Fold this protein.
Amino acid sequence: MEQLFDLAQTPLRELNQALHDCLPDAAESVWRIVNPKGEHAVACGIDTPADVQIQGHVGYYCAGMNKQAHVVIHGNAGTGVAENMMSGLVRVKGNASQSAGATGHGGLLVIEGNAAARCGISLKGLDIVVRGSVGHMSGFMAQRGSLVICGDAGHALGDSIYEAKIFLKGKAQELGADCVEKELAEEHLTFLAALLESAEVDADASDFRRYGSARCLYHFDIDNADAYA
Amino acid sequence: MCGITGLFLKNRALTKNLGALFEPMLLQMSQRGPDSAGFAIYRNPTSMNSIKVVLQSCELSFDWQELAMELKASLDPDLTFTPIHNHCLMLVAADETALNRELLRALAALQGERGSSPVSIVSIGRHIEIYKEIGTPQAVAESFGLHEMAGSHAIGHTRMATESAVTTAGSHPFSTGRDVCLVHNGSLSNHNQLRRKLISQGAVFSTDNDTEVAAQYFDIKLQQGASLEEAMTAALGDLDGFYTFCIGTSNGFAVLRDPIACKPAVMAETDDWVAIGSEFRALAELPNIDHARIWEPEPAVPYLWENALDVPDADTRAQR
């Protein structure tokens, strides 16, 4: 069964409310959303395994806080797509603006085009796969999860990163503070290959380099003990 | 916040609809800037020996006829003027220096009578006309009849004031030089320092607004012979703060974002037009948007479009 929501006719709040009210067994249906015309907060806060297909470009925070649902944006996404998502899948067929997947806790975000600045900022467990390139400060202060970049990265990649993993196929203009290249071991190859497969992105895991935290930034050092006396 | 919009036409057939295409873009940005709005429209270029000036009065019932008579006597007996809401467009056969001198003299005389001048200059140039006012973007667009205006390109702004008062003078676009205007989303952190520097180079400021500093900066750079692209590259080093700028000139428009790029911008281009908006929804109703190339301008990279179309005079409301 397919439900059609035309945002040129239906107010956005009505759509989001219907998605929030949706029972798990009714969620099997496809929710097709047309004429988003760059509206903000489309399909936010879903907590059912719905299949949501958005035909067109969306504004800020599309599919934010997503749980369980599969949301596909057949267009570009504005600032903060899938921000703080918890689980499920969000796929952007076009490009994403800044702060894509910011603070995401879980699930998978796939961006088939490029992502702008601050992709995966403060990541907390979400996996992000970008088929294109990412802008500056991507993976800033990322704590958990992974950021896979098939293209290039802008300045300050992984600045002040904690324990998230970055996999980069192209080149970074510059690594951020405390971000270093690390060995791509067998376990990472297996993990990355599986992630690329679930993202349906055709790339060879062995072409990537892995980056992560040098664990030196603001790290307690015994020589600084006097500062805390 | 603030919203910015720009539309540059490449197809002559669309120029008669510039206002109709541009108004919805401006209105879509109302939530980003509900306190004032304005736009610069480039149209009806004057002959080489004449110039257009747009004046603004704080009095809706201001008698433009009287001011026009004075300027006719001192500058050009064939001067025409078109009151539009509380603004007035004047077309004068004079050079810019003489026009400025006579205007300032006339405005000083008005100030003498009333204590403060009820009239200020909004724009001067052969192509540019700026209309701006406090109020919602919809009210501002309707007051000036934006929808009906023809032209080659337009730059607009919806303001949510942060750095200075909500006044007509503090609204955007800012024009400080002939045919140049600037709209800004963001805030500059070194504007006081830069203002002092520019004053020492001869700039005269009429507001405390940070954007006026940027506008004067570009104007001085251009006067010193820099190309617009050179001026923009220099600005990346001299202006500190957050900005997405859209700059209008007689023959085109340009876009510049600061290196951090917190302030949003989306651009789109087809064979018929190039457009910028703070958000995609500003562009969503443009013709053939579904087939446009859409992208986010890179931080610290100047984008320029030049070679604007000449749009002949279609205005019949001018009075003599």
